[in-house]
Amino acid sequence: MQAHKKARDYVKATEWFDDLYKNNKTTQENIPWARQAVNPFLQTYLDEEKVHKGTALVIGCGLGDDAKALELAGYTVTAIDVSQTALDLAKERFKDSTITFIKQDIFEYEEQFDFVFEALTIQSLPIEFREKMIKAVAGTVADGGELLLIAHKREAMRGGPPWPLTKEEVDLFKNHGLRELSHELHTEDSKISNTRFRVLYKK
Ligand SMILES: C[S@@+](CC[C@H](N)C(=O)[O-])C[C@H]1O[C@@H](n2cnc3c(N)ncnc32)[C@H](O)[C@@H]1O
User: Is ligand 1 within 6 A of the CB of residue 140?
Assistant: First the structure.
């Protein structure tokens, strides 16, 4: 693919998010992923009897609920998103929190964290960005740190957005210094796909 077409596709994909948030500033019911509550698959991690402390990163934080849950669990939290509108909404919703909300593209991020939460951001960009994105996500995990990945599983070829992940794509994390601690498939009714990956990695 020509480089300029790829760059144009990328700008289009990221602008799409900011427009969606802008058009749904007052009520979030038309933002398909905005449940306005912690992701239940993150909550099960937080409910595990381990010490939750150190630094945590939420990738593509949207309205900020997962970042807030991590803060409540005991982490020092950074939450990034490419959409300034999403960040403004999140900051307003969690005014009293100590979360650091930053407008930041995951492709250009070089910080590392003890715990990283990634839900649905990888699949939100066209497949041509997949390998690069997996590398970028893996790069944010510190040595000894953990990554919790939530993504829909691709069951058949479909047009996006979103573009669910195959098992082979999920396995690419292992090429970037991560080993699986658990790999679960959850069944649900969804227009996107009836299966979700919940994979916990350690670096
Ligand atoms: C499908 S939404 C998921 C939001 C949230 N993670 C959740 O599970 O509800 C994807 C989010 O990632 C953000 N995003 C898209 N591309 C990104 C990038 N390259 N770097 C950081 N955030 C990105 C979007 O603005 C959007 O808020």
Answer: no
